[in-house]
Amino acid sequence: MLTTVIGSFCLTLIKAHGSHRLYIAYLGEKKHDDPTLVTGSHHDMLSSIIGSKEEAKVSITYSYKHGFSGFAAMLTEDQAEDLAELPEVISITPNQKHELMTTRSWDFLGLKNEPPSELLQRSNYGEDIIIGIIDTGIWPESKSFHDHGYDAIPSRWKGVCQLGEAWGPSNCSRKIIGARYYAAGLDKANFKKNYMSARDNNGHGTHTASTAAGVVVEGVNLHGLGAGVARGGAPRARLAVYKVGWEEGGAGGSYLATAAVLAALDDAIHDGVDILSLSLGVDENSFGALHAVQNGITVVYAGGNRGPRPQVLYNTAPWVITVAASKIDRSFPTAITLGNKQTLVGQSLYYKLKNNTESRFESLVNGGNCSREALNGTSINGKVVLCIELTFGPIGRIFEDVFAGVIQGGASGLIFAFYTTDVLLSTEDCKGIACVFVDNEIGYQVATYIGSERLPTVKIEPASSITGNQVPAPKVAIFSSRGPSIKYPTVLKPDIAAPGVNILAAKEDAYVFNSGTSMAAPHVAGVVALLKALHPHWSHAALKSAIVTTASTKDEYDTPILAEALPRKVADPFDYGGGNINPIGAADPGLIYDIDSKDYNKFFACQIKKYEICNITTLPAYHLNLPSISIPDLRHPINIRRAVTNVGEVDAVYQSSIESPLGVKMTIEPPVLVFNASKKVHAFKICITPLWKVQGGYTFGSLTWYNEHHTARIPIAVRITIQDFYADVA
Predict the structure, then answer these.
(1) Residues tagged active-site
(2) 51-81 pLDDT, tens digit each
(3) Residues 6+ apart with CB under 8 A from 62
(4) Model pLDDT for residues 458-475, shown as the tens digit of each residue
(5) 92 and 152 co-located in one domain
(6) Could you give the number of structural domains in the chain?
(7) How far apart are CA 308 and CA 440, in angstroms?
(8) Inhibitor I9 domain: which residues (predicted)?
């Protein structure tokens, strides 16, 4: 979604004028290497449905011709049904509209710039790895994207610099080596605020691009907060920009169509990117991403911002890396001094005192939950308002509603009390007033003070920054979408957590804070770029395995990572997959769980309704060689087979360590793996047996291979069932 936690993933069908609607026809592998012939075959196919080749050309908005075959076309419902009957057509789906999903974070992950970490040096900062950003475009003038010191563009690059509004040839560079935008089918009258080019007028794409691959920029801060060196995870990587997100109408809404995302994926395959980062909520059966992976591209997706509820995760296909958001070791304490000299602490990004005067005491009033009804009859003009919200809901949306009412009433400040959470919205733009977040306990203390005084007052100081061990981290962010996957329950998701809370990165010529899994995904893309530079021959599955199996499950104090939820709890695999990303460990994982990308085909084929013949023994994804196991319906003992490849010392011995999920017995055969020059791959068998006869929920465990140098851990989720339905009836 827009990188903030304000929205949710809405999947609203896009309707066109009259009875026509945009449909996507997926035809599978392309039958020709010549893209012109592929597009011609699309025209021929559609003309058989709608009458003529000329009408077919007008109807088709995108022809997918590089990585796979298909097209998006304006059709009536009857025409779509007729098209679906053709034997060459695998699926027909209506186009869908989606929402869009740093100075400190890289240091927190161990990738220090001064002195440079060993991984940065060994990978040469990700030099010449090409990261594709499918998002809202980019602001090329940002300092994060200068190309000083870059050599010529890699000869393998086949992309283009598409010219457009406020985008000329000089806006591409040796850093931003490619730019495309996808405006087919847009009603230009409804998108007047947009640049019809790859230029970003939203800021989302610029923020994510600079997080993944921004160059080193000294002295970055937001009005003194979060001061440090801004850089991406792979500062020497190249960027290719694919603009698919647009601002729609005058309400600031976002427009993002499946058809455009598929066109960007298709072009990215042709252009030669190494990694794709998508901070989007795109539910397109993932065939576009599958073809990208099968063409050697690592695809990284944001998992979504609808947590902490379970089963709200998006982008959960087994061939992509799905990213959750976590908090880093930085906070912005803000002192609140009451008229009785009691000092309390909240958090804010409050940096600018109104009229640039010194802090002073102002009148304080209790606005209840600050709904229209609560504020009715309460004089808040020129006063600081306490708002206490006791209901659960999307914090961003609730805050927006509260803030609108407070500003309308002329308040001079806001103390917003909410349930305990580490989320800090980007409150630097509070129209000149202080917006401070506190938990409900602090809010109650402020309310008690207000009730005890005839003329209560308060003084709010500007925020300060603290980092390091004083701030327990990481934690899974409360907004981060949680598993299990409802679409692919035999795939454990998310895969990994990465920094996504209060991330300072580029927007136009400045730097701003944003939060969301949108911020987390480019952190993973940046790490993948470093790993790919270090291990150029590793497959997508190997890169994913290295990240998952070396992830951290404990914080800086060696205690289990927590997940912000209701209530706060110890994180489990449905919160963070393998754990919080550990770039240093991922560079040297010891063992990897590799997959031939063609192995995904059997699993994928059984997800498309047109394929009616599937071998049920190969259908569950837990039979893929994934670095995780998810069994949603364990009734009888089951054998899971896995294989690991030694990428560490040639002669190595690994012991196994099993943590069985509650109610489950796990055994492994063999329990010891011995590698040498002639034995680089070992297969093993995990027997998982239910001990309880219940209709239960998920319980969690792990399997770890370890020796004196390496530890490779995979998460395991198991649900014991006795019926075909999943209600708890034990």
Answers:
(1) 135, 204, 518
(2) 899 999 999 999 999 999 999 999 999 999 9
(3) 71, 72, 182, 184, 259, 260, 262, 263
(4) 999 888 878 777 777 899
(5) no
(6) 4
(7) 18
(8) 23-100
